[in-house]
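Re: the request from the purification team.
They wanted to know what the chain is likely to look like in 3D before they choose a buffer screen. I agreed to run a prediction and write the result into the notebook, where they can find it.
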Amino acid sequence: NNEGIDFQNKVIRHSLLFNTLGGLLLIILGYPFIKIIFGKEFIFAYTIMLIIIPGIVIDSVCRTIFSWYKGTGKPKIVSYFSAGSLILNIIFNIFLIPIWGLYGAGFSLLFTYIIKSSILVLFYRKSYYLSFRDILLIKRDEIVNLKMHYFNNMV
């Protein structure tokens, strides 16, 4: 179903865009927020947050593709990827936490998200004969439509 895949890819692209914008907002506001709400003794959490944010943004693609597979009757694919990423994360944690502590846990999560998302996008791409551009790069007309939709409704 080409129409369904086209819509799914559009959802992936928009999700990636909005999660990237949210990640940038967290990068900008995270430090003062943590300092004001939790105090100076928790400011180290900002660095961990900086480590994790790119992984969370990348993982938004995974979550969207997982929804597609569940909705098209292929939940086993989601289970396999989830189990694999759990095992991968445990392995990374075993090696990185003793070396870097909480920062190691952050890097473990980041590496797991990157690897899981990369493999899933490759699998999804191959399954539906798509290009990376179709899946990940937002189109100019979509940006124009988003601007018109959100900014016209604000005024």
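For the purification team: The first helix runs from residue 2 to 38.
Please add any questions underneath this entry.
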